[in-house]
């Protein structure tokens, strides 16, 4: 039997792919819409028995992340697995299905004065998508990333096995933490169907202190701000292609505590500053078009942020990101594949010398097919062995991850 | 004709010639001194001890073990409380405590690179003059090693705000169970690829041995305020914790001790806690000065509203240390009021605290043992101390039974069988109560990717070994927690 009628027989909605369902420019023969972990398991068992390859989609906002793979046989759409399963405000935890939009979750949590400490630089993301891509924004300086907030997961392996790790308490060291492996795995190890997170209270007040710096004043400024005892929630930089760098610090806290911290921050900046309730730019990637644009992710040791940002600026990139953690996003003005390739090579050399990496975060499939998206990877041999154990048939998102995994 | 040498004899011979003199111990008397870690009632004498002083020692020892199919166990200072460093009778124990240089510190990068045998507190001692410290602070931090912290994903009182070891490790050099050396992670965050290092941290020595660890350094806060609060009972102390956390305050630490634990601490270190208290809270707030001042005022008010009869704010570092002394000495202190005791480590959702404490008192009463309670109240991590007298027939068994029943109680409330001490040898048997065969089978896939022959700290974490290459269990029975009527599947 064909896959679609077989899924229908299992009570699972499925249909042939439509123009909106393209994956890396490939048409997909089948899109399945499971509504629960059990249905995801049933779909994967069915796919596994046919050796069908599977790509997972939430809202499809980040399908251009990672390498471009061959045409998948099945697109597993989790947008109907979108329930909030549990929110325990007193315990500061929430358990959600992977297809729940992050913004919807935040809305529910805000009503209790809480939030999940993961920002949404790509609007429209689902919770599962944010975890699978390890997306983060400015507040990672304060609350970390998905790896630090995910305390339990339910996953479905390629053969349909349903497995859990962690739990719903923040402190828990029983068994291996599979969640860590799943964060940023781009759907190549297993399908995340449920996630449990620790939450944080929403502070009473938030203010940004920002300043435009001369390029040669950037490193001393960042050094002062990183070393300050201001406990900022974010320390961001934005350096447009034809401009000077702007540095912005987010202070969050109590109504009584914030004014003195703003004054102390202004003293650390030691240059003219502006104070705002909110800023637009730090919450967005420097590209408006994540699906079709090109965006690099540059990382480095903390003390090299100014140097890397400056080098990227000199190469003609618009640089923006977390200056307080060493994670920058950069959009090139390069127009030919050759210039992209050589620019990437230069940035890989530079970032590697500073303990980091240069990854092609997102780009058109044509570009990702031609270039090495990832660059050098530590521990690749172990990663291949993990993939072979979890997905021996290489059915989950083949070709999307490091080393062609 | 001579018999073929036993594998361990072959390892001994190989390491005698490969390692520096004195690094290999096979004298039975000396071996016997390594027969346990901090969990004293499990004792196994290793067949061989290697005193590792550098990464080459570790690599050579592990490679020899791999060649001859001999199990190995790494041990730091041996402070672990779950028997994670319990030796294997036919195996090699690698003692890492001599492998202890802090090889690099960069305040600007907020990083330090340290050997696995470095003492936890030594990292902070070295970096504090520059305004930084290593945040994970297990109570044993004066003696425990970074390698042990990595293996156990150690927490401590302050992980409520600052997170566990996993949040503070950026990169590590690792010797895999086949003797291969790899580097995981980078100095920068978000190294491309799977977060294998994240899974390695907390794997209790079952995936290999770290030979160098790059840790995150945390800026020392501008202000630290510590205060001790006396309550009539644990219910009112618990209500104060709920009110503080409900108000959106994230304390650096918030610890509770009950009457019996206070009695023990008084007997041991004369900590001079409020007289007549049925429970005390140790609350610590840190951060920018004005924020801390506002939070202290609010937290004190919440405590008074919940019925606190005494609040004592530490005026200086000395007074702060005095407050912490009672709390940090609590485990050892119960030795003053009971000849024998079991230290338990379980986790519950914090809001279930009053109910769990009542049930715990009841189950102890039923079994004729006493339970002293010390816990990280902010995150529901309980450390019940089950007191008993081994000389009284039946008491040891009753205590063991009570200790196990406490873990059932934790699971019933959606918690965990260990918050920070690890599974080790002690709790492997409890794992199937918390995880399905499929859950455990899936975790074992990770083990198979690292250690297909199962020689790296065998017998720990998992109740039964798994033959790699096996197809994961296909049974789809109800989750054990659910089947036992203990609670909903998480």
TrEMBL record, chain A:
<dbReference type="InterPro" id="IPR036318">
    <property type="entry name" value="FAD-bd_PCMH-like_sf"/>
</dbReference>
<dbReference type="Pfam" id="PF01565">
    <property type="entry name" value="FAD_binding_4"/>
</dbReference>
<dbReference type="GO" id="GO:0003824">
    <property type="term" value="F:catalytic activity"/>
</dbReference>
<protein>
    <submittedName>
        <fullName>FAD-binding oxidoreductase</fullName>
    </submittedName>
</protein>
<dbReference type="InterPro" id="IPR016169">
    <property type="entry name" value="FAD-bd_PCMH_sub2"/>
</dbReference>
<feature type="domain" description="FAD-binding PCMH-type">
    <location>
        <begin position="24"/>
        <end position="202"/>
    </location>
</feature>
<keyword id="KW-0285">Flavoprotein</keyword>
<dbReference type="InterPro" id="IPR016164">
    <property type="entry name" value="FAD-linked_Oxase-like_C"/>
</dbReference>
<dbReference type="InterPro" id="IPR006094">
    <property type="entry name" value="Oxid_FAD_bind_N"/>
</dbReference>
<keyword id="KW-0274">FAD</keyword>
<dbReference type="GO" id="GO:0071949">
    <property type="term" value="F:FAD binding"/>
</dbReference>
<dbReference type="InterPro" id="IPR016166">
    <property type="entry name" value="FAD-bd_PCMH"/>
</dbReference>
TrEMBL record, chain B:
<dbReference type="InterPro" id="IPR016167">
    <property type="entry name" value="FAD-bd_PCMH_sub1"/>
</dbReference>
<dbReference type="InterPro" id="IPR016166">
    <property type="entry name" value="FAD-bd_PCMH"/>
</dbReference>
<dbReference type="GO" id="GO:0071949">
    <property type="term" value="F:FAD binding"/>
</dbReference>
<feature type="domain" description="FAD-binding PCMH-type">
    <location>
        <begin position="42"/>
        <end position="220"/>
    </location>
</feature>
<dbReference type="InterPro" id="IPR006094">
    <property type="entry name" value="Oxid_FAD_bind_N"/>
</dbReference>
<dbReference type="Pfam" id="PF02913">
    <property type="entry name" value="FAD-oxidase_C"/>
</dbReference>
<dbReference type="InterPro" id="IPR004113">
    <property type="entry name" value="FAD-bd_oxidored_4_C"/>
</dbReference>
<protein>
    <submittedName>
        <fullName>FAD-binding protein</fullName>
    </submittedName>
</protein>
<dbReference type="InterPro" id="IPR036318">
    <property type="entry name" value="FAD-bd_PCMH-like_sf"/>
</dbReference>
<keyword id="KW-0274">FAD</keyword>
<dbReference type="GO" id="GO:0016491">
    <property type="term" value="F:oxidoreductase activity"/>
</dbReference>
<keyword id="KW-0285">Flavoprotein</keyword>
<dbReference type="InterPro" id="IPR016171">
    <property type="entry name" value="Vanillyl_alc_oxidase_C-sub2"/>
</dbReference>
<dbReference type="InterPro" id="IPR051914">
    <property type="entry name" value="FAD-linked_OxidoTrans_Type4"/>
</dbReference>
<dbReference type="InterPro" id="IPR016164">
    <property type="entry name" value="FAD-linked_Oxase-like_C"/>
</dbReference>
<keyword id="KW-0560">Oxidoreductase</keyword>
<dbReference type="Pfam" id="PF01565">
    <property type="entry name" value="FAD_binding_4"/>
</dbReference>
<dbReference type="InterPro" id="IPR016169">
    <property type="entry name" value="FAD-bd_PCMH_sub2"/>
</dbReference>
């Amino acid at each position: 039997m064909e896959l679609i009628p077989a899924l229908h027989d299992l009570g699972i909605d499925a249909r042939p792919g439509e123009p909106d369902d393209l994956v890396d420019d490939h048409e997909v023969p089948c899109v399945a819409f499971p509504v629960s972990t059990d249905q995801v398991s049933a779909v994967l068992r069915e796919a596994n028995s046919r050796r069908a390859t599977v790509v997972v989609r939430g809202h499809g906002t980040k399908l251009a992340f990672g390498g471009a793979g061959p045409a998948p046989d099945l697109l597993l759409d989790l947008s109907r697995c979108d329930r909030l399963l549990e929110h325990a405000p007193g315990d500061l935890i929430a358990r959600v299905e992977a297809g729940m939009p992050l913004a919807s979750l935040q809305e529910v949590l805000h009503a209790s004065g809480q939030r999940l400490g993961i920002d949404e630089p790509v609007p429209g993301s689902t919770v599962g998508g944010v975890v699978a891509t390890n997306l983060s924004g400015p507040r990672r300086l304060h609350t970390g990333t998905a790896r630090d907030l995910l305390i339990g997961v339910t996953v479905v392996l390629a053969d349909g096995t349903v497995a859990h790790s962690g739990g719903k308490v923040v402190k828990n060291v029983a068994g291996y933490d599979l969640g860590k492996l799943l964060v940023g795995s781009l759907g190549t190890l297993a399908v995340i169907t449920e996630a449990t997170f620790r939450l944080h209270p929403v502070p009473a007040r938030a203010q940004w202190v920002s300043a435009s710096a001369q390029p040669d004043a950037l490193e001393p400024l960042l050094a002062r701000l990183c070393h300050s005892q201001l406990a900022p929630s974010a320390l961001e930089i934005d350096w447009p292609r034809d401009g000077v760098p702007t540095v912005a610090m987010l202070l969050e806290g109590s109504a009584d505590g914030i004014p003195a911290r703003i004054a102390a921050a202004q003293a650390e900046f030691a240059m003219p500053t502006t104070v705002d309730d909110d800023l637009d730019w730090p919450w967005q990637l420097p590209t408006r078009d994540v699906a079709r644009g090109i965006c690099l992710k540059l990382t480095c040791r903390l003390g090299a942020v100014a140097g890397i940002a400056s080098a990227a600026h000199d190469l003609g990139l618009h640089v923006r990101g977390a200056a307080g953690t060493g994670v920058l996003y950069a959009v090139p003005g390069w127009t030919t594949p050759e210039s992209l390739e050589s620019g990437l090579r230069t940035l890989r050399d530079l970032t590697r010398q500073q303990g980091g990496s240069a990854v092609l975060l997102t780009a058109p499939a044509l570009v990702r097919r031609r270039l090495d998206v990832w660059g050098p990877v530590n521990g690749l041999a172990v990663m291949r062995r993990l993939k072979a154990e979890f997905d021996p048939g290489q059915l989950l998102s083949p070709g999307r991850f490091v080393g062609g995994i | 004709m001579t018999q073929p040498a036993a594998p361990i004899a072959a390892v001994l011979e190989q390491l005698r010639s490969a390692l520096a003199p004195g690094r290999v111990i096979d004298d039975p008397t000396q071996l016997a001194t390594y027969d346990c870690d901090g969990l004293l009632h499990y004792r196994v004498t290793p067949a061989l001890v290697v005193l590792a002083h550098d990464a080459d020692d570790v690599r050579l020892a592990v490679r020899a073990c791999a060649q001859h199919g001999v199990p190995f166990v790494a041990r730091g200072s041996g402070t672990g409380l779950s028997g994670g460093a319990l030796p294997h009778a036919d195996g090699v124990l690698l003692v890492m405590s001599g492998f202890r240089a802090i090889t690099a510190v960069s305040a600007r990068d907020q990083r330090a690179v340290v050997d696995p045998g470095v003492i936890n507190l030594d990292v902070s001692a070295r970096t504090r003059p520059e305004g930084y410290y290593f945040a994970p602070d297990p109570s044993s931090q004066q003696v425990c090693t970074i390698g042990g912290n990595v293996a156990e994903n150690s927490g401590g009182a302050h992980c409520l705000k600052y997170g566990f070891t996993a949040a503070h490790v950026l990169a590590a050099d690792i010797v895999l169970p086949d003797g291969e050396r790899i580097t995981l992670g980078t100095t920068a965050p978000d190294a491309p690829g799977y977060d294998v290092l994240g899974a390695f941290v907390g794997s209790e020595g079952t995936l290999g041995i770290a030979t160098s660890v790059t840790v995150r350094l945390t800026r020392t806060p501008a202000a630290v305020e510590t205060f001790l609060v006396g309550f009539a009972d644990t219910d009112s102390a618990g209500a104060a914790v709920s009110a503080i956390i409900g108000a959106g305050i994230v304390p650096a630490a918030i610890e509770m001790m009950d009457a019996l634990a206070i009695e023990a601490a008084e007997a041991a270190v004369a900590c001079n806690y409020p007289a007549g208290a049925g429970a005390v809270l140790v609350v610590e707030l840190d951060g920018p000065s004005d924020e801390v001042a506002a939070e202290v005022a609010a937290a004190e008010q919440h405590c008074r509203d919940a019925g606190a009869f005494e609040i004592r704010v530490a005026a200086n570092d000395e007074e702060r240390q005095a407050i912490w002394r009672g709390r940090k000495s609590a485990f050892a202190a119960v030795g003053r009021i009971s000849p024998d005791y079991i230290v338990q480590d379980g986790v519950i959702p914090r809001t279930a605290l009053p109910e769990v404490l009542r049930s715990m008192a009841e189950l102890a009463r039923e079994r004729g043992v006493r339970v002293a309670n010390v816990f990280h109240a902010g995150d529901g991590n309980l450390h019940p101390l089950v007191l008993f007298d081994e000389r009284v027939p039946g008491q040891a068994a009753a205590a063991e039974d009570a200790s196990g029943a406490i873990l059932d109680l934790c699971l019933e409330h959606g918690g965990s069988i260990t918050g920070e001490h690890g599974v080790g040898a002690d709790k492997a048997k409890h794992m199937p109560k918390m995880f399905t065969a499929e859950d455990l089978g899936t975790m074992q896939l990770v083990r198979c990717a690292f250690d297909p022959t199962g020689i790296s700290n065998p017998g720990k974490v998992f109740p039964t070994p798994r033959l790699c290459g096996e197809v994961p269990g296909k049974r789809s029975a109800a989750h054990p927690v659910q089947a036992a009527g203990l609670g909903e599947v998480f």
